[in-house]
Amino acid sequence: MRVSVDPDLCQGHNRCYALAPELFEIDDFGQSTARVDNVPPELQDKARLAVANCPEFAISIEEDE
């Protein structure tokens, strides 16, 4: 699984970081970026929770096949 943040959609609510600081980091302007390329299995539920809680729908997940 891979997680990514669309910088054009992110408005800096930081809910993703609050829910999964292992997966997201915040820059000096409050914008979120993905911290990891591949989400470890033990953090996949947190990644899905971050997607569900993003009010701007800026986070997306690409599932492995």
From TrEMBL:
Key words, A-Z: 3Fe-4S, Electron transport, Iron, Iron-sulfur, Metal-binding, Transport
Database matches in Gene3D superfamilies: 3.30.70.20
GO MF entries: 3 iron, 4 sulfur cluster binding; metal ion binding
Co-factor requirement: [3Fe-4S] cluster
InterPro entries cross-referenced by the UniProt entry: Fe-S_cluster_ET (IPR051269)
Pfam family, one: Fer4_15
PANTHER family: FERREDOXIN (PTHR36923:SF3)
Protein name (Swiss-Prot/TrEMBL): Ferredoxin
Organism encoding this protein: Antricoccus suffuscus
